[in-house]
Amino acid sequence: MNEALKRIHMQVMWNRLIAVVEEQAQALLRTAFGAITREAGDLSAGVYDTGGRMLAQAVTGTPGHVNTMAAAVRHFLDRYPIATMRPGDVFVTNDPWLGTGHLFDYVMVTPVFRGEQPVGLFASTCHTPDVGGVGFSAEARSVYEEGTCVPHMRLREQGAIDEKIFAIIMANSRNPIEARGDLLSLIACNDVGAARLADMMREFELDSIDELARHILDTSREATREAIRKLPRGRFKTSMTLDGYESPIELHASLEIGDGEITVDYAGSSPVSGRGINSPRCYTEAYSVFGLKCIIAPAIPNNAGSLEPFHVLVEDGTCVAPLRPAPVTARHVIGQMLPDVMFGALAQALDGRVPAESAGSIWVLPMAGMRAPGKPFNVLNVGLGGTGARPGKDGLNTTAFPSGVGVVPVEITENESPLVFWVKEYLPDSGARASSGRPRAAHRDRQQRSDAVHRGRGRPSTASAIQRADGPGPARTSRRRAAGVGHRAGHQGRAHDSAGRPHRARAARRRRRGRSRAAREEPPRRRRGRGIGQRGRRRARDYGTGRER
Question: What pTM did the predictor assign?
């Protein structure tokens, strides 16, 4: 086979490998028990060589999961060398520092064999509804209060599941059925990936994927370095201020563009917070590199080769590199702001070619309580802001950037809890006042059914109200300015219904029909929100002028 034909052959197999991991992700999406996974897509899937290097990731998934898993698999191999693994084995952990950044994400790793010879590994992760502790809240003061940590364990040995591990996980979860179901879904999706890889290897008559792995990693690495070499050399500094808890959080970044390499240094960023908004090193690296790749090399597939030219430096004990046992449940509050920090630095080198700031951190809505005595409920949803204005294009309404997750449909949440959502609409005037327009966020009103007792963990965390059904109707609520609900993004789109009328008018009519006269006449309540996401509000700046918006 000549060299040109060989490269074509390699490209065909590379594309096939990406299709394999996408099927792996779809298997997880379709079998997961937790709504945040099956409805919002908070998951990831990937395939690795026997050295733990990521070769391909699924299109379906979030960068916070995918890029953290790129390093997480090597931690499994440190504890369970590939030579000790056997067909049918599966390994699991949810260690925040050796996984994806908080306890709610279980990472599952499955070795793949051709005969008795290991040829690769599949890994997957998803957000489980509950792991015990204080629940999904930033209120814990240490990771020990945040839930149950499962170290690297062999969950399945040569096909036999260790029910003792399942028993411990289920006994410490408010959602034991969903917890078990999600773990089984992770196992199943890895098995699907392993079966499809075996099919691929038989079809292409491969005894190993080592040669394909070298082609993928070498090609991706060189393509990324070439993209970096097209950038102007130099050092570019930027900063961002978040609300924080004890005091404002300062994120300082220095970005140095060299010869095919980029180094980001977060020296000078705020120390670790006493609340669970800290972003572990793995999560900081994941979202920082994702932000850089979005601008510099968006078309190059994500794998260990394309990630290699990027280096992230952090100081231990800071909010972007907390040390155990710092609380980290809501690590998205800081971590998901980091792509915009990267954009702020790159905008100085690429004038006019970088999007404006987006809403950044998603707004997490944890809701728990009792339907009736002995009948608890525990649900999780997210609120989305919009993306910043793009070069020559509008931003996008209610689109999660950088996480890429969707929302859980209100019908699903209503079915799993005693809550009723009265309104779901665009939040008027939720974007920044910018010449390029502004995107809008979503606004919801919720109420409880029957005599359910609501117990919110932490503080309220969305621009809406929850009231008892035997009390007054849903009051008009404050529109909190927060990164989690689209505060200070860069563009406002226009949305109309099928008759060409603005959605705002139609939604207003729905609100009027659903509220009593007394509720409609009640003035808006203005209060500062302190939910998970509110603390991620930052003083947005126009990248072109440096002025605060």
Answer: 0.81
